[in-house]
Design a protein that fits this description.
The protein is α/β, with parallel strands linked by helices. It contains 13 helices and 17 strands. The strands form four sheets. Strands 4-12-11-10-7-5-6 form a seven-stranded mixed sheet, with helices on both faces. It has a four-stranded mixed sheet with strand order 1-2-3-15. Strands 13-14-17-16 form a four-stranded antiparallel sheet, covered by helices on one side. The longest helix is centred in the last third of the chain and has 38 residues, at about 280-320.
């Protein structure tokens, strides 16, 4: 901690825990204290820690090839892109290193497609309260002014509207619209889902104005909602043109992906986008294993997530300062009418890790391997924390 204070940029407000190792749904600090991990690297460690299948894959591939320039083929990008096409319904993939990079590529894809159609076709519709990343392009479409304002001016033509406000969406869309960007479940914004009616109207307006519908599924996708992707929660699924994904995909290793249909993919022709590290052999082989495990866990995610939400809703009936419990699968937010930071700190003291977003929303992103027994253990601790209020 002292070395970080002296030598690192002081841009993280860290909790006073030094994590040494993890196993399953638990992490252990340097003093050997165990914590039940319900934040899982903010959704990254979706298969928990030291998952045996992931460890075997890493050890095997590390002995063969860690990095291969995108000047050449390797054995795993093609199979991984094929699996993503099968589960997403989108034909093309591009691999990068993170969610914010995936959003940057998606924006370039939208503008690269729209600008040849008309020099005035550059507007992007995004949502208030959204969060899409910290690079300049991703910040420009992030609907939280506190993140944008210190770094302006950003890319022009972004129009922010309220989530689920169909009238505002219809007013914002027009011939200048290049893309509509949505999180199906706003993560950093406080675990707020979209309505299917709003998303369906966004799809219709994108078609009407020859724009792309881009879904940010970096936090809410790749198994977390109990489906491969959150847009598949709608019946029937509302198909996007582009999906940005990351967090769980690499099983703890850095991997992002842009998935796109042929119409959208044409916006990034050969030579117009690239990456040095994205889609390397190690992380792509691990991602193939991750998707295999997720395929086996989808019903489990749905079942255990439903149990967790039901029990939190029961707590909401007991404690009047709990305003609402929201989410799908293992992406759950519990909104309070009091600040939540101290509850998070008290939870760490009792061996439970979660976090608070938007000051009052306790956020739970457990690993997909969590059991009902582990959820019950967490609920006992949460109940004790709430009683203190």
């Amino acid at each position: 901690m002292e070395l970080e204070r002296e030598y690192l940029l002081q841009n993280y407000s860290r909790y006073p825990i030094v994590v040494r190792r993890g196993k399953g749904c638990y992490v252990y600090d340097v003093n050997g204290k165990r914590y039940l991990d319900l934040i899982a690297g903010i959704g990254v460690n979706a298969l928990g820690h030291a998952h045996p299948r992931i460890l075997r894959t890493i050890r095997s591939q590390a002995a063969l090839l860690l990095h291969c320039s995108n000047l050449y083929y390797h054995e795993y990008q093609g199979p991984l892109a094929k699996q993503l096409a099968e589960i997403s319904g989108l034909q093309r993939s591009f691999f990068c290193n993170s969610g914010t990079e995936a959003m940057e590529g998606a924006l370039k894809m939208a503008l690269g497609r729209a600008t040849p159609l008309s020099a005035d076709k550059y507007e992007i519709i995004s949502l208030e309260n959204s969060f899409h990343g910290r690079t300049l392009g991703a910040l420009a479409i992030t609907g939280q002014a506190k993140y944008r304002q210190p770094f302006g001016p950003l890319i022009p033509g972004v129009r922010f509207i309220q989530r689920n406000d169909i009238a505002a969406l219809e007013q914002a869309a027009g011939p200048r619209t290049a893309a509509i960007v949505l999180e199906w479940i706003q993560g950093e914004g406080g675990i707020y889902p979209l309505s299917a009616e709003f998303a369906r109207r966004a799809r219709e307006l994108a078609d009407e104005h020859d724009a792309l519908l881009i879904l940010d599924e970096i936090q809410c996708g790749v198994g977390r909602p109990g489906k491969y992707f959150a847009y598949q929660l709608a019946e029937p699924a509302i198909m996007p043109d582009v999906v940005a994904a990351a967090k769980p995909l690499g099983g703890g290793l850095p991997l992002g992906a842009i998935m796109a249909n042929e119409r959208a993919a044409a916006g990034l022709p050969a030579g117009m986008h690239g990456t040095t590290f994205g889609g390397g052999p190690l992380v792509c082989r691990v991602a193939l294993e991750v998707l295999d495990v997720i395929r086996e866990r989808l019903l489990h995610i749905h079942h255990v997530g439903g149990y967790f939400r039901m029990e939190l809703q029961s707590l909401a009936r007991r404690f009047p300062f709990i305003k609402e419990v929201r989410g799908y699968g293992l992406m759950i937010g519990m909104e309070l009418d009091v600040p939540g930071k101290q509850i998070v700190t008290d939870g760490m003291a009792e061996g439970l890790l979660f976090n608070c977003t938007h000051d009052t929303v306790l956020r739970f992103l457990p690993p997909y391997i969590i059991t009902e027994q582990e959820v019950a253990r967490a609920l006992k601790i949460i109940t004790r924390l709430l009683k203190k209020l």
